[in-house]
Write a structure and sequence with these properties.
globular, alpha/beta, 272 residues, 6-stranded parallel β-sheet, Rossmann fold
């Protein structure tokens, strides 16, 4: 059995690549719902139904564990899928999200004033703040900033444009005297900005990127759940990249995101 990754677009490939680098022995499947991107503009019910379709597809591809590498879907539908969908349809499978690992890293860092860039749906869900509250971390303040315009820029490969917007927002807070000591990149696409932000703002600001949080947390999860880990196949392959809508530009973008790590005769792209 394999580990599946679900995202509303291609950004989750960055998380998949990071996980596969750290946990190279396992086999992986990827589902990108490029036809309905972005999820941040959709209703909660739409997000639930689209996410359920993607997760079920990955289950049919023999994935025993699916990581929802989409912050909007994690915020809006993860708990519902875990509590309503799995027990009835796939009681022997597991679904994990990407929000809790980041919150755990924030707490461990001792950062106290954190900016979070995310989609409108992730911001309005309040999920990051809720997870802080569950852990009684009331001295950690997260200022959530909706930046839906970054997703299409990054999907098109315009990293410079997306970074310029992010940099301006950070500078604005600093000019206002806000003592920012952490930045959460609350969308898988935004992880492409991590190195530029670190280079610009230095060691005084900790950047929390899911490409760094998820691999370590997933390793720990598998170590503590041998009943899942022992079932996973270990041929070190990405079996399939499935896109609900395909363009030639996506082929180029996938190659760029994965840096040739998986694109071989054994890895193929299935097109809807």
């Amino acid at each position: 059995m394999k580990i599946g990754f679900f995202d509303s677009g291609l950004g989750g490939l960055l998380v998949l690549k990071a996980v596969a680098k750290e946990l190279s022995q396992y086999d992986y499947e990827y589902y990108g719902d490029t036809k309905h991107l972005p999820y941040g503009d959709r209703t909660e019910e739409e997000i639930y139904e689209l996410t359920k379709i993607g997760v079920e597809y990955l289950f049919t591809k023999d994935c025993s564990l699916v990581v929802i590498a989409c912050n909007t879907a994690s915020a809006e539908t993860l708990r519902r899928l875990q509590e309503e969908f799995l027990p009835l349809e796939y009681p022997d499978r597991k679904i994990l999200g990407v929000i809790v690992p980041v919150i755990e890293d924030v707490i461990e860092s001792d950062c106290k004033r954190v900016l979070m860039f995310a989609t409108q749906r992730t911001v309005s869900s309040g999920k990051y703040h809720l997870e802080l509250g569950k852990r009684n971390e009331f001295d950690v303040k997260i200022e959530a900033i909706a930046t839906p315009e970054l997703v299409p820029l990054l999907e098109d490969g315009n990293i410079a444009g997306a970074y310029a917007i992010t940099e301006a927002l950070i500078d604005d807070r600093l000019l206002q005297g806000v003592a920012v000591d952490g930045i959460i990149l609350g969308c898988t696409h935004y992880t492409l900005l991590a190195s530029k932000i670190r280079k610009r703002f230095g060691n005084g600001v900790t950047v929390f990127s899911q490409t760094e949080s998820i691999p370590m947390k997933l390793r720990t999860y598998l170590q503590s759940h041998p009943e899942i880990e022992t079932l996973l196949s270990k041929e070190a392959q990405l079996r399939n990249v499935f896109l609900t809508q395909h363009t030639s530009m996506y082929d180029q973008h996938i190659a760029m995101l994965l840096e040739g790590q998986f694109l071989s005769e054994q890895a193929w792209i299935e097109k809807f």
